[in-house]
Amino acid sequence: MKTLIIAIVSILFSVAAQFSLKAGMSGAALKATLAEPSTIRTVFAVLFDKYVFGGLALYALGAMVWLAVLSKWDVSKAYPLVGLGFFFTAAVGFMMGEQVTPQRLVGVALICAGVFVVARS
């Protein structure tokens, strides 16, 4: 049970990373930068945007936490749990006003059902 909680924490870091990256790439400053011709300055502007940088840091943190999961479980058991990220992402997206269609909900439910089957093995 403890390993499952650690896996979920890692997945939540990844979900938070996605929303942070989205915030950075959707921001007015980066949109203006990306509208100009690409240079090395563009790369640095993207990488050092506070939201993009934070999102990458959250991914790194999630990866470090994931190492604890891999130290205890087979990859074939652990990796399907990453599919739970679809559920958490859809839920957070919905709470933030994103359009979550019935078709998307069915897809997420199917992924979660698969994760449940693998977790029980």
TrEMBL record:
UniProt subcellular location: Cell membrane
Keyword Transmembrane helix: yes
Domain of life: Bacteria
InterPro entries xref list: EmrE-like, Small_drug/metabolite_transptr
Membrane topology: Multi-pass membrane protein
SUPFAM superfamilies for the chain: Multidrug resistance efflux transporter EmrE
Transmembrane parts of this sequence: 51-71, 78-96, 102-119
Keywords carried by this UniProt record: Cell membrane, Membrane, Transmembrane, Transmembrane helix
Record's protein name: SMR family transporter
Source organism per UniProt: Viridibacterium curvum
